[in-house]
Structure formats: C-alpha cells, structure tokens
Specification:
Elements (H helix, E strand, L loop, with lengths): L1 H22 L19 E3 L4 E3 L1 H10 L6 E3 L7 H10 L2 H10 L8 H4 L21 H8 L2 H15 L9 H25 L27 E2 L6 E2 L9 E4 L4 E6 L2 H4 L12
Antiparallel strand pairs: 1-2, 1-3, 4-5, 6-7
Helix pairs in contact: 2-6, 3-7
Length: 271
C-alpha cells in the first residue's frame, strides 16, 4: 500500500511539474484555439505542440490521433518524448506564428483576429473570450497544409533530424481531397440539422444528387429531410421513415444520403 501511495504521489508531483513547465512557454497561459484564459489550459496535442481548454479538447479528439493526439496535462502519464514535443514546439504563440507564416490565416484565436468570439459572445475589452472555438474553425486550422507541415517539422525536431521546408504535390493533393470530403459532409449535416426548405421544381431541371435530367419518365421527388429535388434512383421508395424530431410521424421519403445518416436511424413500424 505504501508503494502504491508513493507512486501516486510521485505521479501527481510529475504532473504538477509538467504543468508548471508548459505554462511558462509563450502563449500557453491561454487556449491556442479560442483564447480562453479564465483558467490555464490543461489539455495538450502532442503532435501539434499546443495547449487548449476542455471545450476545444473535444474538437481535437474529433480530428483523430493522426491530426491531433490529445493528452491531459494533469490526468495522463507522459513519456519523455511527449514532454520533448511540447518543449520543442515552443508554446502556443510559436505554433500559431508558424501556421500564419505558412499560409493559414486563421491560426490565431478569435480575439486576436478581431473576429466575433465563438458562440456569439462579445469579448470584454483586453480579455480573450472564454467560449470554445467552433469545430469548423479548429478543423480548418489543424487539417490545413500548414498544420501538416508543422506536425512533420515538430516530429523532426524531437527526433533530431532536419525539418522539412515544404510538402510535396501528393501531400497537398491528399489534404485538398480530405478537406473537400469533410466540407461536403459538413454541408450535408447542416442541412439535416435544420428543417429543410424544399428546392422548387422549376429550379431543379436536374437531380441534385446525380445530375440526371428530369423528364416525363424520370420524375422529381423531394427528400423530406434535406429538401433536395432528386430522382427515384437517389431516393428509392423504400428509403422512408418518420422524422420524429420535426413531429412527422408518417413515413416519408429520404434521399440515400439522409437515409443512411445517423440521425433518427431507427426503423419503425413495418419499415
């Protein structure tokens, strides 16, 4: 029991020492993404070298460990290599400066950019907003080409090798494709979250999913969730379910995208 208690005390002391060390690095007294400074940030991205608040930590986790490997400064045990990564990064200011120099204009948190704080809250004069940065802003920042170059740069610093100075064409192409796919997914999710305004028939000569031309044979249908004007191939008759969150209890037609979405994905009745 004494050995376990000693280990626990040693771990707590190590966490406290790490926290003190990291908070001394330039910019680390506030969140790297939303600028919250009401409490020192207790969450870190090992491969990005930044500290951020609890609210932004969830957004980092959503990126996946390839983009941002999240650790708690106070709760997790760190390896020496992980400590070195944060030391070599040089603090939030250094990371954001690197991203800005390499083309990502949204590197600074909202209060520094002069943009309205996330969540619509007004910033008090001289004090960064404490609201966490929106998911789309965090994603755009850490999935950018500048962020990928920084992750490779930081990895090289930790390993003692020469840092890269630029990404190759294939790397840039992959980043563009990944971000395009994410933007499309985000647009679709946005349409699903709100009760859709239907596309008028006269504004849709083509199916809004497959671009097939409508005709007497190829009839128009509307997805009751996203509101797009689509053909029967893109919204089969069997793709039907209620939309209970909108008070629609009857089964109604959905396009293929909305039907396979996680929203209200339970089949009911005789569907």
């Amino acid at each position: 029991m004494e050995d376990e208690a000693s280990v626990s005390v040693a771990a707590s002391e190590a966490s406290a020492a790490l926290r003190r060390e990291l908070l001394l690095l330039p910019g680390n007294a506030s969140c790297a993404d939303c600028g919250a400074s009401d409490e020192p940030p207790d969450w870190a991205s090992i491969n990005c070298g930044t500290l951020f608040c609890l609210g932004c930590s969830g957004k980092h986790r959503a990126l996946g460990v390839q983009k941002s490997f999240v650790r708690s400064v106070t709760l997790d045990m760190w390896t020496e290599a992980q400590r070195q990564a944060l030391r070599k990064a040089g603090g939030n200011d250094a990371v954001n400066d690197f991203l800005a120099r390499h083309g990502h204009s949204g590197s600074r948190h909202n209060s520094q950019q002069g943009a309205p704080p996330a969540g619509g809250q007004q910033q008090q004069q001289g004090k960064p907003t404490s609201s966490s940065s929106s998911s789309s802003i965090v994603r755009a920042k850490y999935t950018s080409a500048a962020a990928e170059l920084w992750r490779r740069h930081l990895k090289a610093l930790v390993e003692g090798t020469d840092p890269p100075t630029a990404l190759g064409p294939e790397d840039l192409k992959q980043i563009d494709e990944e971000n395009a796919a994410w933007r499309l997914q985000e647009q679709n999710e946005s349409r699903r979250r709100e009760k859709a305004a239907w596309t008028p028939d006269h504004q849709a000569p083509l199916c809004e999913m497959c671009n097939t031309k409508f005709s007497v044979v190829k009839r128009r249908h509307h997805c009751r969730r996203c509101g797009r004007c689509v053909c029967a191939s893109c919204a089969p008759r069997d793709n039907a379910r209620p939309i209970l969150e909108w008070g629609i209890t009857a089964v109604v037609r959905h396009c293929k995208d909305c039907y396979k979405a996680p929203v209200a994905n339970q089949r009911v009745g005789n569907l």
